[in-house]
Specification:
alpha/beta, 6-stranded mixed β-sheet, 3-stranded mixed β-sheet, 11 helices
Length: 247
């Protein structure tokens, strides 16, 4: 299984997924499309029991979403229009995902950039529902889109160092838009999530640990993530799936 922006390495029942999107390694529509394909395949693959999601090299995770792509999507959607109108437009685009051929046709229209938001929602929601245990090995900044991806994972480990994690999108004039507000509230609690989002507050690794946003801060996050992956891969897979479904 090879995907353009994902480097896949398998070790027994553990799959390591390195997101590699040069030159800046930002999250964008291409990465989301590949994560969507990978998620669909993992749903049907019972031989893989744990997934480690990480960046392309030491010191890099997913810095943030490609701001230029967000701007193009907002312009095509008409985000300057009232919220209700934008919401209806997004709902319509989401519904068109189920119409055969419609998405392919829209890809050739000015609405093409706006298609990425419902696609992002669907891809991250699918990742959060995978039967495998998904571990984010965060070895660098994870802000905005990077934090959204990490929140879609079951377990988050972060390397110690001079990097940050959070959802600061409101400081750029847009709200977090891929389900991160709901997931952040579930992880750190509603009060802390509101304070973080509305103040565009990003956290150091130690602060993220104190908030419960990450489960562990490590000197070698790759090694720690692999140790966790190998441990959880040894559990009864039916018990793991049942526990995840219940939670």
């Amino acid at each position: 299984m090879q995907l353009p922006t994902l480097v896949l390495e398998r070790r027994g029942p553990v799959l390591t997924v390195r997101i590699s999107n040069p030159p800046d390694d930002l999250l964008d529509g291409r990465v989301i499309a590949d994560l969507d394909v990978l998620g669909r395949r993992l749903l049907a693959d019972r031989s893989i029991r744990a997934v480690v999601l990480t960046g392309p090299r030491p010191g890099v995770f997913i810095p943030h979403y490609d701001i230029a792509e967000i701007a193009d999507g907002a312009e095509s959607l008409g985000l300057a229009t009232p919220y209700a109108g934008a919401r209806v437009s997004l709902a319509a685009l989401k519904a068109l995902r189920h119409v055969p051929g419609a998405y392919g046709l829209l890809r050739h229209t000015p609405l093409a950039p706006a298609l990425d938001l419902p696609s992002t929602h669907a891809a991250l929601a699918r990742f959060s529902r995978l039967p495998q245990v998904v571990i984010a090995a965060i070895d660098g900044d994870a802000m905005g889109g990077g934090c959204e991806v990490a929140l879609a994972c079951d377990i988050r480990l972060m390397s110690d160092g001079d990097h940050r994690i959070g959802l600061p999108e409101i400081s750029t004039g847009i709200p977090p838009g891929a389900g991160g507000t709901q997931r952040l509230a579930q992880v750190v609690g509603p009060g802390r999530a509101v304070a973080m989002v509305l103040q565009a507050r990003v956290l150091t690794p130690r602060q993220a640990l104190d908030h419960g946003l990450v489960d562990q801060v490590c000197d070698d996050v790759q090694e720690a993530a692999m140790e966790v992956a190998q441990r959880v891969a040894a559990w009864n897979p039916m018990a793991v799936r049942s526990a995840k479904r219940a939670m």
